[in-house]
Amino acid sequence: MEKKINIAKDYSPVLGGRWIALGPHSGEDFYNTILEPAYLEVNAEGNGKIIFELDGTKGYPSSFLDQSFGELGRNYGVQKIRNLIEFKTNIFQWVVDYINKEIWDKTK
Fold first, then answer.
1. 3 state SS of 86
2. In terms of CB atoms within 10 Å, which of 12, 66, 69, 98 comes out highest?
3. Could you count the other beta carbons within 10 Å of the beta carbon of residue 100?
C-alpha cells in the first residue's frame, strides 16, 4: 500500500505552531488528524509507504515539525517510521534534513 499526503492540499497551506491551544493548523492537530492515522493504516498493511509532498505550504515552523513528526518517532520508534515514510520536495529539503537530523536522530 502506498499512501500519498500533500500537506498543503490535504491539511493546510499555512501551518501553525506546536499545540492546538495555540491556534489553528498546529503540529498536534496534524499529528492527531492526518499523521498518526496514516501511519497506523499503512503499518497495519505490513509493507506500505507514506509519501509526504512537502511543497505548497508557506513554510514549516520547527515546533510544528517536532510536535508532529517528532511525536510519531517518540511514540512508535524512529527506525520503524523511517522505513515507512518518504518525503518529496523541490523546495523544502531543509525540512527533510531537519526532521532526520534534529528530530529523529535525537529521539530515543
1. strand
2. 69
3. 14
Domain boundaries, the chain: 2-104
* Rounded Cα gap, residues 39 and 62, in angstroms: 21
Cell numbers 503499518: residue: 43
Task: Give the global pTM.
Answer: 0.95
Per-residue pLDDT tens listing for the chain (108 residues) = 899 999 999 999 999 999 999 999 999 999 999 999 999 999 988 889 999 999 999 999 999 999 999 999 999 999 989 999 999 999 999 999 999 999 999 986
Rounded CA gap, 23 and 106, in Å?
A: 27
Cβ neighbours of 69 (radius 10 Å): 27
